[in-house]
């Protein structure tokens, strides 16, 4: 005889079956809730409250220009800054204007140095001195000859390249002397060493206790430079002088046109 549903619900504690286990570990595993019976917590999907006033300074305005435009404007501001300096500050430099006075015989030295606009460079410390030998305080021809012998490869009959001295200027009848130094970290220190060396050479050349008159001036460095250039002077016998029309005898040269016409007219009459 089947029991009614209401009766079965009332007698459920009586008819429930009990299980017996051999150990407590098995019983704990059987009584543990499974993943299907465990309810997961429902996350809170409500939006987090944000204070917009905090990010007000970080949000760019809608009408702001892009970054390249800002860079172009900064460049224009820099150009305008220097234009204002030229307009308002440069006229004040007139008060420091001085007339140019060419150096006289008491200032024969030509000092050269290199500058890279304030940027560090190894060549910026080099200093060079170029001077015509004829303008140096030497006593006589014997002192000039001794100075050339002591100068060695630093003496040349022509002005050195980029020396600031033109070949047409006066004072080149005894050649030119050039000395440079770049051993010290500052240009002023190198210039001081070159100047002191020139003073010692002048003192030794003016000491005529030994004139070096039997020693010829060494020109091997000039001949080597001429041979290396290969501009016609490297041919044997032309190292120091390239032949021109002035070296030919006048009777070998053709007569000028005006003179040839006058001579032909005189002969016809």
- Beta strand %: 5-15%
Computed over alpha carbons, the radius of gyration is 51 Å
- Tertiary shape: elongated
Helical run tally? 8
Any overview of this molecule?
This protein has 269 residues and is an alpha+beta fold. It contains eight helices and four strands, in the order ααααββαββααα. A four-stranded antiparallel beta sheet has the order 1-2-4-3, with helices on one face. α5 (141-151) crosses α6 (187-206). The chain is elongated and about 165 Å long. It starts with a helix and ends with a helix.
Write the layout of secondary structure elements.
Layout: H1 5-10, H2 12-15, H3 24-31, H4 67-88, E1 110-113, E2 127-132, H5 141-151, E3 155-156, E4 176-181, H6 187-206, H7 220-229, H8 257-268
Antiparallel strand pairs: 1-2, 2-4, 3-4
Helix pairs in contact: 5-6
Task: Write a compact overview of the structure shown.
The protein is α+β, with helices and mostly antiparallel strands and 269 residues long. The protein has helices spanning 5-10, 12-15, 24-31, 67-88, 141-151, 187-206, 220-229, 257-268, and strands at residues 110-113, 127-132, 155-156, 176-181.
């Amino acid at each position: 005889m089947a029991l009614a549903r209401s009766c079965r619900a009332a007698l459920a504690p009586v008819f429930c079956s009990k299980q017996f286990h051999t150990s407590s570990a098995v019983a704990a595993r059987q009584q543990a809730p499974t993943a299907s019976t465990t309810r997961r917590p429902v996350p809170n999907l409500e939006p987090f409250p944000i204070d917009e006033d905090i990010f007000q300074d970080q949000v760019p305005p809608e009408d702001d220009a892009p970054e390249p435009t800002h860079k172009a404007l900064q460049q224009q501001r820099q150009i305008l800054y220097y234009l204002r300096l030229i307009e308002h500050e440069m006229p004040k430099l007139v008060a420091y204007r001085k007339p140019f006075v060419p150096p006289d015989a008491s200032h024969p030295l030509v000092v050269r140095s290199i500058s890279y606009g304030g940027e560090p460079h190894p060549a910026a410390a080099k200093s060079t001195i170029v001077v015509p030998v004829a303008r140096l305080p030497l006593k006589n021809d014997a002192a000039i000859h001794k100075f050339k012998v002591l100068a060695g490869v630093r003496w040349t009959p022509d002005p050195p390249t980029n020396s600031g001295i033109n070949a047409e200027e006066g004072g080149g009848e005894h050649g030119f002397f050039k000395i440079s130094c770049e051993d010290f970290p500052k240009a002023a220190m190198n210039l001081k060493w070159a100047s002191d060396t020139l003073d010692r050479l002048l003192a030794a050349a003016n000491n005529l206790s030994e004139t070096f008159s039997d020693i010829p001036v060494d020109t091997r460095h000039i001949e080597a430079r001429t041979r290396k250039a290969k501009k016609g002077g490297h041919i044997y016998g032309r190292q120091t002088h390239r032949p021109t029309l002035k070296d030919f005898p006048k009777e070998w040269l053709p007569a000028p046109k005006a003179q040839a016409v006058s001579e032909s007219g005189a002969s016809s009459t």
